[in-house]
Inverse folding.
């Protein structure tokens, strides 16, 4: 018997999530991972690395609760929002019995986490405008414990209609949780549903420091929910999810100064996104640039494969979305520095 045969059957069949770093590439213009384009600088203040960290660093939890407008008892901090996605499945889904539902095209880790844990994956394709198909969702809810909704949605960049989210919360009341992934919400904070937590006990919100806070390498995310849900997640989370240096930097990022700096970066990036959208639309090979409420743009090209390869060969790495349902001919570009954005548009103008 080979070692591989000892592994679980679903793991042997699993295709891992193809993250930007896993896909690779060689270049100096990296616009494929929705990262903030410039590094932020912090100094470590905690030197007690001989001690285990707190399971839930008090200062980080309290500062995030203040920032999000919830009680500390409604916050759990984890290794990125990706761990939050999985914690919910581990706490609420029986492998081989329960299902999770999501609406492609959307973030790939909902699928990968469910498949890894042996939880059924159920999909309802988004409508042509990338909004929820509520009648189709209603007809598919039997046995579903978690419904993941990404808003703003990755990779399309659009917000999900808030009235549709309310209707989804109503139709799943007392039978499933609705998990709204707000990884990109800092780029359109007025669209957050966090204030709805008081009204909907089956609502869960995912957040991260990876995007607007420019800390993708830190791996720090948050799950916001009722105290009852948070207490269940605390039963299944690892004993030390955040290392001491991570908690130290996260607390600094969530200080008043850190939040103010983040908001300034967001304003600058949103302005650059608007300008990039206009410039891309003038390129002859670009057929459409889609509206976005995030730090990236999705756009369609006459020959996306050829354009992707031409940019790749120049060391400009974008994200190919052709394999996503309904996104044939589309590439996704993270908003980089002005120099990086110019490099892309200059290359496409000559394509």
């Amino acid at each position: 018997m080979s070692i591989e045969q000892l592994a679980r059957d679903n793991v042997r069949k699993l295709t891992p999530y193809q993250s930007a770093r896993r896909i690779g590439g060689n270049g100096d213009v990296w616009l494929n991972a929705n990262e903030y384009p410039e590094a932020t600088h912090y100094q470590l203040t905690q030197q007690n690395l001989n001690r285990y960290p707190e399971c839930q660093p008090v200062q980080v939890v309290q500062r995030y609760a203040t920032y999000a407008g919830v009680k500390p008892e409604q916050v759990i901090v984890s290794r990125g929002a990706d761990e939050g996605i999985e914690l919910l499945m581990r706490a609420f889904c029986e492998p081989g019995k329960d299902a999770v539902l999501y609406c492609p095209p959307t973030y790939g880790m909902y699928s990968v986490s469910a498949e890894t844990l042996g939880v059924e994956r159920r999909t309802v394709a988004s409508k042509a405008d990338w909004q929820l198909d509520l009648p189709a969702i209603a007809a598919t809810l039997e046995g579903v414990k978690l419904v993941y909704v990404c808003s703003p949605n990755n990779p399309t960049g659009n917000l999900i209609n808030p009235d549709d989210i309310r209707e989804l919360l109503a139709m799943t009341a007392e039978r499933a949780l609705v998990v709204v992934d707000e990884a990109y919400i800092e780029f359109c904070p007025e669209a957050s549903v966090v204030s709805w937590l008081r009204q909907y006990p089956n609502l869960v919100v995912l957040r991260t420091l990876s995007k607007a806070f420019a800390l993708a390498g830190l791996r720090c995310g948050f799950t916001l929910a009722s105290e009852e849900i948070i207490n269940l997640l605390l039963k299944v989370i690892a004993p030390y999810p955040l290392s001491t240096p991570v908690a130290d930097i996260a607390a600094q990022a969530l200080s008043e100064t850190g939040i103010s700096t983040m908001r300034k970066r967001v304003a600058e990036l949103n302005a650059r996104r608007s300008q990039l959208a206009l410039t891309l639309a003038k390129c002859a090979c670009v057929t459409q640039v889609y509206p976005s409420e995030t730090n990236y743009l999705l756009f369609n090209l006459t020959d996306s494969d050829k354009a992707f390869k031409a940019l790749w060969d120049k060391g400009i790495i974008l994200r190919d979305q052709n394999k996503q349902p309904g996104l044939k001919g589309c590439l996704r570009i993270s908003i980089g520095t002005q120099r990086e954005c110019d490099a892309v548009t200059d290359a496409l103008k000559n394509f």
